[in-house]
Structure formats: structure tokens, C-alpha cells
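Forwarding these from the shared drive since the link keeps breaking.
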Amino acid sequence: MGGEGASVLPERAQKLVDKLVQQAVDADAAASVSQAIAEGRWDQAERALEAPDRAGEQLAELIDRIVRGVERRSRQWTSARKKDSLQRVLSGSRGDAGRLQQRLRQLVASWDSESPEGAEGGTGETLPAPLGESMPMPLEPTRPAPLDPVEGAVLEWNRVVATMDGTVRRALPIAEKDSLTLAESIADVTQRIQMMGATPLLADELHRLCQRADRVLQHRHHLLEQLGKLCRELAASLTDLAEDDSWAKGQCEAMQSRIEEGLTARGVKSVSQLLETTRSRQNQLREERDRARDALKSLINRMLSELDVLGSQTGRFHESVGRYADVIEKADTLESLAGVVREMVEESRTVQGLVAQTQAKLHEEHTKATDLSERVTHLETELRRLSEEVSTDQLTQIANRRGLLQAFEAERSRMERTGSTLCIGLLDIDNFKRLNDELGHAAGDEALRSLAAVVSRTLRPTDVTARYGGEEFVVLLPDTPAEEGQLILTRLQRSLSGGLFMHEQKQIFVTFSAGVTTYSLGERIEDALERADQALYEAKRTGKNKTCIG
């Protein structure tokens, strides 16, 4: 087409062009094209005719971004939240195509930037012209219009409702049929509230469902209290149920100590590991003690048998003495008397030899019996010691639970004097059960020993490493903020990439997950470990071989 300022078309030609333009583009674009042609502004007319094509491309691009954005996984923007936000934007801007496109672009941009606030407060990017809007001149760059406060509050309210819905449903014991039905009902009402708004009818229905959920959860709390009482009763009854109360004394005290700290997941796990480890060791000692007792019984039986033989011999000798007395009394010659005396002397020597032999055997067996008795006493003493010191770790040769508590008390006292900080870390070997199942318990023990050695060797001399039970370790990092403690354990995790130990000529790779927290003066170590355990669970849940802060 020609440049600006060309002659205007004849009237008949102008009408014909107007009809053609109206068939090609929408009414707004047709008016812009016709006006530009009538005024001889051919470049502007050309741009107006090309605007629908550009608008179509932009619309296709926007739809593609929306589809990909909804499907893409995100930590902050869940799929349900994305759909809810999209529905709200569509509902709030149906009457203004330009504003709708701006709002949609703004929403997608917030998804791409992983910033949930972007959908509400706006972004700093410059948006292209809204689709389907024909302008006589190129649009000046504009900032997207932010959501108004009311609409932003609606979006946030729906997010809050969705979060509370998920939290309540996860708290319900879905293994029970009634609770599962209740969770499904809450999810259904929540979804209807998000789509239709919080009408009085829906609000009342949700209130009734929440009251039912509250009763279920209260009953679960009551059940937990009853389980705690049951555990305490079982711990107190172990002494009566055991073969020898000295064996059970240490277990009872340890169990009661853990239970009194509260029925937390960590406490229950700790008691289970405590009983498992102690029962295994006591079974070994009990078997050895029983073997010693059986050997002692066998010796006693042999001694009784020897005494019985001796008794038989002396009984026969006594009968012979009586017979010899009769013969001597009736003897009438010296020769017959001498023969009887010789028989008596020979039989006396035989009996004397048998008595001496029996005495030697009895002395030897008495010595063995004394040794076995001392062995039994030693084993029973070892059983009592084991019961009293059930947390002693013999495998890794690092501090046990008792040693950890002593080190913690020392650090706590130092914190009170100097105002220093203390970072507590909880480490747990990843996939430890699978390692035991596939390679055997010997490999599992070697993994524990190797990890304990690596951690102790890597940390500072002032740091404390302790085995807390099973595959769990605790580290005390004095004068260390939680963020720095996270970096320390993360570096330690990376250092294990080359393998931890050799097993059957193969390099075994072992990783661990960890949670760290800052200890606050006045709280128990169990309170800090509970936070660290929650962070450890988060590390396990989000991929393992990482360290999270609690």
C-alpha cells in the first residue's frame, strides 16, 4: 500500500472496502480500518488489519502458558490452588477482555516465578497489549493492573480453606470407615465453598462436620492417654512377669523414664529399640548362664554316682569284715588264720584305693563346680549390670544416651554462664532396614560403626557425637547457629558420596538424613530433639540425604 497522505478513495469504492473489511475482522477492528482508509492513513490501516492475527498468536501463547502452568508441579502453587486462582480471575473479569488478559498473564507470571504473592500484588513486568483490541498506534508499555484488595482476600481465603481442609483430613484416622466418610464429606463441602462461596447453608454444614471431626480427634486423644496408662502398667508389671526381677529392673526404670517424658513418636520408638536391644543381649547371656547351670547339674549328678559306687564298695567291704570275723573265730590253725588275714588286707587295700580315687574325682569335680558357680554368678551380675545400663552402646564406641545427657548438661550449664548457643542435630541412616535385609546384620553393624567413626572424625573436638538408638545419632554443636549446623551436616553428607565401607570386596554407599534445631534455655533436650525429629522427617519426605532446620 502507499504511504501517508495518499488520495482518499471514491465514495463507492469506500463502501465496497468497508463491506470487505467487516467480513474479515470484528466490528471494532473494522471501524479502525475503515477510518484509516477514509483518511488515507494506509500504514495504520495495514496494522489494524494485521492486529487480529497477532491477537490470535498472543491468545494461543497465553493459553499454552496457562495449560503448562497448571500441569507444572510447584511447592508453593499446588494444582488445586492454581485452578482455584484461575477460576477466580475468570469470574472476576468476564466483562473486560483486556483486563482479563492482563490478569491471566499476571497470574501465569506469578506461577512461573514461584511467588504466590505475585497474583495478588502484581509483578513489575511490562505486559503486551490485550488480545483482540485494535489500536490505531502501538500500545505504550503498561503495568498490569493488580487484583483489588477484595479479590485478593478472596483468593487468600480460598487458600486458607484448602489448607485447613487438608490438615483436618490428614489428622483424621482414615483407617476407620466412619472417619474416612467424614473426611470425604469435609472435602466435598470445602470444594463447594470454593466454587460457590461460603453461603450460610454451606457454612452450617461445614460447622457440623467440624464438630464431628472434633469429637473423633478428642476420642483419639483419650485413646492415647489410655495407651500411656497401659504402657506404664506394663512397665510396672515386668518385674512380676520376669523370671528374675533383677533382669527386668533396668528395663522398667528406662521404660518408665521414657514414658514419663510423654508419648511422642520418638519416645515410643526409643522404648521399642531399648527393649529390642536389651532383650537380644539378655537372651544371649541367659543362654550362656543356662548352659553353665546345666554343666553344674551334670557334675553334681556324676559326683552322686561316684558316691553311690563308693557306698556299694564300702557296703560289700563291711559284709566281708563280718564274714572274716566269723572265719577268724572258727579258725583252729595258724595257717587258716593267716589266709583270712591276707584276704582282709587285700580287700582293704582295694577299698582304700577306690576311696582315694573317688576323693580325687570329687575334688576335681568340686573345683569345676566352683568355677561354674562363679561363672553363673558372673553372668547374673552381668545381666543386672546390663539391665541397669541398657543405653550403653558397645557397637560404635561413641557416647551412649547416658553419655549424651551428661554432655548436654555440661553444655547447658555453659550456656547459662556465657550466653552461648547450642545446635542439636539428629541423624538417621537412610534405608537402613533394606541394608540389613539385603546384606545382613553384619553389614548393618558395620554401617553404624563406619558412620559413627566418620562423624566423630569430621566434627570439631568440642562437638559431641552419640548413638541415640537403632540407626539414629545425635550431635551437639556448641557455639553454632542452626543454619551453620545445617551446612556442617550437608558437607558431611556430600563427603559420603565415595562410599562408607567395604563389604565382600564391594564399596557400600550409605546416606543419612538429618534435622537440626537451636536449643533454647529452659527446655528439655527431648523438646529440642522433637523439633529436630520433625525436621528429619521433612528431610526424609522430600528426598532423603539432606538436612532440614526445625
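-- next protein --
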Amino acid sequence: MSSPRVRKIADRIQVIVAEMLERRIKDPRLGFVTITDVRLTGDSQQATIFYTVLDSTGDDEAALAATAAALESAKGLLRSEVAKQLGMRHAPSLTFVADALPESARHLDEVLARARQQDEAVAAARGTAYAGEADPYKKPFETPRTSAPQEPPREAEDDELDDE
């Protein structure tokens, strides 16, 4: 969909199909359907319609299968309405695909929750005190200093080198 015309047609198809599903299609198998995206080929012959289903009963797979069957049976009516409202000679064929966006979002939420728990565990561990001293390394034994520092004795080799 590189051309602006194709993008406008795809946006219009999304609005038309959403309004049709809300107002005219009265199939009891149809759940709370949201049209998330429409992708149209460059020649405007194929339209892929992505949808999500909000299920209030908790049985996602059954609701998704029932909604897919209802959309497949209403495909002809939706295509004729799209052709009528767009005024196109050749209406694009419609293909309905369940959008994976909610599953991806749910997975990302789980990953972020796990990361947040690990961060909290690390922060809690950071506040704990270690067993033992703060500085575990041994210090060398220091002798008390006398009042005057002692000079190291001169070696005999240094004297011999000076004579030469």
C-alpha cells in the first residue's frame, strides 16, 4: 500500500465494514468485533481485514471460531456494500484474519510483570546487609612508628661504584 489512494480506500473499507457489522449484520454468532486494520493490495483487488473479538464468557477459542464463521457467511453482503459505497467497478475480495495484537499485548504484559518482579527482588536484596565486615580484606599489620624515621643502611656496592 504505497499509494495514498490505496490507503484511503483501505481506510474507507474499514469504516464501511465496521458500520455494517454494527448496524446491519444480525448474526448471533458475531461477538463484539473490532476491525483493527485493513490492508489492500496495490491493484485494489484483495482486501485483508484484521479483526479482534472481545469475549465476555471467557472462552476465547470458541468465540473466535464462531465469529470467523459469521464473518465468512456475511462476506458477500459486506463485499457488495463496499462496492456500492466506494463506487468501484471491481470490488476487492475480502479476507478476514483474526488479529494477533491482543495475544501479543498480553504476552508483553506478562513479560513486563515478570521483569518488574525481578527488579523488585533485586532492589530488596540490595538493601540487605552482608554477613561479616564491610571490608572483608585483611589489612597488613602496622607497627607503631618511632619519633625519628630510620634511614636504610647504605650498601657496600654503592661505595665501590663511587670510587671508580
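The mean pLDDT is 81. Residues 46 and 93 are 5 Å apart (CA to CA).

- D.
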